[in-house]
């Protein structure tokens, strides 16, 4: 079964100014014989219907009492077919339609709205005949069991974008996001001059970004992200004066950001991250007065930054310049003083002491990872009352963790690979109930592990490569939400608590390179979703839990212990 078996397909093709009758509402002429035959063809292709909808399709007039069918008030032609699973939750679990989409639906040539949603067991392909639905304005096929080669207008969602869509010149919205489409954007799409919304993100589309997209003067959203587009960003895109959101991120785009980028006067968000762009950020970008989100991270962009940014971009809230070839030297004053929400300057060659931020009341996310910062971090934590995410990893910062006071709002704290020291006994009990990700790996932290309370929401805890001593407290099992625990490469002794078998959300466990002894608890077999475990280089002995996944992990996960045995290692000769 391929990955499309449970794929949710949502294709919304919306005309502007549509004023359509509600399904089943009002008094209408009798429906045409051709439309009735088309609907009965669909009914015949449904082998089982537990929703009861199709049981109403018995009378001669399909515009009268047929559930889900709506007709034009004067012509009697079927304009709407809306079949949605009536109930959600446990009460609706047994409601479905089982069968395939009948090609006869392609004969409903006055159809404007087609919704077949949440039926779960409607499988197969979208019939090629759907390309004949020239009046179609909305098509929703979500929550079904469609699989294999889905097709529209003679093309497959595993293949290329349908060139025939270029003939639907009244379209204002197209969403083909999150499919398996390949190849270039068809040249016929240049006819879609009225398009306001184009989302073809998360596919495998390739070739150059068509310059004709710059002719779509009404475009509000353009999302081409997460594809394989190459070449330069067409300068014509800078003519999209009404565009609000443009994302070209995570492609293979080269060259420079167009100098005319400042002509996108209406732009709210611009994402160019994850490409191969080079050269400086154009000065004209500072003229985008409505831009609040700017992400050009993970490219090859060089400095200097436009000086006008200090006073331009008056609406800016979120900026990400991380991992380019910028050599900032220090954090720009505007990034510390303006009321920004997100400041991401990771890998920007920033050195010196970690400065204070004067926008602490607004700052929600700060990422200064992989720079050359030194000094203490306590003042950052004290002066950022709204901070939710702090990433300072890969620097040379020094602080006693036992003296750190964390904002109550903090949910992610990544301080790995610095020069932190001190004990966790006072620090961990103060992390708060919002903390989900805590990474203190590769520092100089010592002392034992504290007792854990039940009020913690941790999903990720990495304390590896420190100098932590003592034992694993049995209260670690109270971390019921924990998905990843790494305490490897420390000096922890004692046994592995059997209570850890209660941590059924664990997906990743690494306790390697410590001095643990005793057995691996049989209770671990309760953790059925474990994807990675590493017990190597301890003093463990006895039989490895003989059940999946522990008996199928690689042998390297258990080597260099005292006397572990059983699959995947050699059989046990004697089990105490």
From TrEMBL:
InterPro entries: Leu-rich_rpt, Leu-rich_rpt_typical-subtyp, LRR_dom_sf, LRR_N_plant-typ, Plant_receptor-like_S/T_kinase. Residues 33-71 form the Leucine-rich repeat-containing N-terminal plant-type domain. Keywords: Cell membrane, Leucine-rich repeat, Membrane, Repeat, Signal, Transmembrane, Transmembrane helix. SMART domains: LRR_TYP (SM00369). One of its GO terms (cellular component) is plasma membrane. Its main location: membrane. Residues 1-25 form the signal peptide. It comes from the Eukaryota. Pfam families: LRR_1, LRR_8, LRRNT_2. It is found in: Cell membrane. This is Leucine-rich repeat-containing N-terminal plant-type domain-containing protein.
């Amino acid at each position: 079964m391929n990955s499309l078996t449970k794929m949710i397909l949502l294709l919304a093709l919306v005309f502007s100014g549509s004023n359509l009758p509600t399904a089943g509402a009002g008094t209408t002429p009798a429906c045409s014989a051709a439309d009735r035959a088309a609907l009965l063809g669909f009914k015949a292709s449904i082998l089982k219907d537990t929703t009861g909808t199709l049981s109403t399709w018995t009378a001669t007039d399909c515009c009268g009492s047929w559930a889900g069918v709506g007709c034009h008030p004067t012509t009697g032609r079927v304009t709407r077919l809306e079949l949605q699973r009536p109930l959600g939750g446990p009460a609706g679990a047994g409601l479905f339609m089982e069968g395939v989409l009948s090609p006869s639906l392609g004969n409903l040539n006055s159809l404007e709205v087609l919704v077949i949603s949440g039926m779960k067991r409607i499988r197969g392909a979208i019939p090629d005949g759907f390309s004949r639905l020239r009046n179609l304005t909305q098509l929703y096929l979500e929550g079904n069991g469609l699989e294999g080669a889905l097709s529209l207008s003679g093309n497959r969602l595993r293949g290329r974008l349908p060139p025939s869509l270029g003939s639907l010149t009244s379209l204002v919205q197209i969403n083909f996001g999150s499919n398996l489409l390949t190849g270039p954007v068809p040249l016929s799409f240049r006819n879609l001059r009225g398009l306001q919304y184009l989302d073809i993100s998360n596919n495998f589309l390739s070739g150059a970004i068509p310059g004709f997209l710059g002719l779509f003067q009404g475009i509000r959203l353009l999302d081409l992200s997460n594809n394989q587009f190459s070449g330069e960003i067409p300068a014509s895109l800078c003519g999209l004066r009404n565009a609000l959101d443009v994302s070209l991120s995570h492609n293979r785009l080269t060259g420079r950001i167009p100098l005319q980028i400042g002509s996108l006067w209406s732009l709210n968000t611009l994402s160019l991250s994850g490409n191969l762009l080079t050269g400086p950020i154009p000065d004209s970008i500072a003229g985008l007065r409505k831009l609040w989100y700017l992400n050009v991270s993970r490219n090859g962009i060089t400095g200097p930054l436009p000086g006008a940014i200090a006073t331009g971009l008056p609406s800016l809230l979120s900026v990400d310049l991380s991992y380019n070839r910028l050599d900032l030297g220090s954090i720009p004053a505007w990034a510390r003083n303006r009321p920004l929400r997100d400041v991401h300057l990771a890998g920007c060659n920033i050195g010196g002491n970690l400065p204070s931020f004067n926008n602490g009341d607004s700052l929600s996310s700060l990422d200064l990872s992989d720079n050359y910062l030194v000094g203490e971090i306590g003042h950052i934590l004290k002066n950022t009352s709204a901070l939710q995410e702090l990433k300072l990893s890969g620097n040379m910062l020094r602080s006693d963790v036992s003296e750190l006071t964390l904002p109550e709002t903090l949910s992610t704290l990544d301080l790995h690979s610095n020069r932190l020291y001190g004990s966790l006994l006072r620090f961990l009990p103060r992390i708060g109930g919002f903390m989900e990700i805590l990474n203190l790996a590769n520092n100089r932290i010592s002392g034992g592990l504290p007792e854990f309370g039940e009020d913690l929401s941790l999903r990720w805890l990495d304390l590896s490569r420190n100098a932590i001593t003592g034992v694993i407290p049995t209260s670690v099992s109270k971390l019921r939400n924990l998905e990843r625990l790494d305490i490897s490469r420390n000096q922890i002794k004692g046994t592995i608590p059997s209570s850890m078998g209660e941590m059924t959300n664990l997906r990743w466990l690494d306790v390697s390179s410590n001095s643990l002894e005793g057995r691996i608890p049989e209770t671990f077999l309760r953790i059925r979703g474990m994807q990675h475990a590493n017990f190597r280089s301890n003093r463990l002995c006895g039989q490895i839990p003989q059940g999946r996944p522990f008996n199928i992990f690689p042998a390297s996960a258990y080597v260099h212990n005292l006397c572990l045995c059983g699959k995947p290692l050699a059989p046990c000769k004697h089990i105490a």
